[in-house]
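Sequence only, no structure available. Ideas?
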Amino acid sequence: MTAEIVPGFNYDRRRLADILPLRTPFTFMIAPSQLCNLRCRYCSQGKDREELVREGFKFRLMEYDVFLRVAEQLKQFPDRLKLIFFSGLGEPLLHKRLPEMIARLRDLQAAERLEVFSNGLLLTRELSHALVEAGLTRLRVSLQGLSSARYKQVAGVKADFEGLREKLAYFFQVRKECKLYVKVIDSALEPGEEETFYEMFRDVSDQMYVERFVPYQVSMGDYHKAACTTTTVYGDQVLDAEVCPEPFFNWQADLDGDVFPCCPLGLPKSFAVGNVGASTIPEMWNAEKARRLRVALLRKQRSALDPCARCQCYLSKLTPADRLDDDAERLLPLFEGA
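Reply:
I predicted one. Tokens follow.
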């Protein structure tokens, strides 16, 4: 079997403008960890630890009761979510109860798909079986190079790259209905290594892709202009768009249970629309703070909002189907009177 060379993104989607407003978010990210076993140079985890603590970064895991609140509240939406995924500014596999979390969401039937974004290094054989049996539908693994030496340069740690490939090959062997997506960003590759990547993982993954290095974390600013701003993470030309569509369909919860109206990483706590200990996510979805944000975006006032004005993340993955600019005037009354 040969893996498909495809982006980890569904292009076969309805125009977002044609189905707003939504009763239920399509996708929701849960961040179970702010601990990581890597210190990648393009991630907040690669910054000085003391600086991160001063910025409010918390090097710990999500408490299980916080997760349970998130899971139960996601089930309260009138419709089933399309996707719930585990990601964030840490490594999800560091959370020992991750398979339990996935199984709980499966049993609740909270979403059609359940995914984990990981660097894969902690993927033991036992954990591979546990994730598959828990009901995971796709494991997305991000590589930081194609050799142990390159991992040291990019991720700042010693890593057994050949051992990682063996772990992924084993997961692929036992994955059942779960899909394995293996990706690497172009800046983690040495010149000319793209074809090497495809040859190396074509027989041990279902899907694979070389993604572009784009501005994906608000806390990292413009990456000293090193990240590409002319193409999306999947290599498409960046669209001309002022309206960020994220708050209309794609939300997240951090390890404290603070809920944010979009999924870029490194958002300030002040941007949260609530906490699962004080109100429910469906209440936040329909609350005034979220409504005001959506109205401001449809009025094309993004540049007057913080942190929206300094965020380029939405452009880095925006597709024509999600672009709202041409429909903003028509959509505005739907949210102004909500």
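DSSP finds ten helices and ten strands in the chain.
Hope that gets you unstuck.
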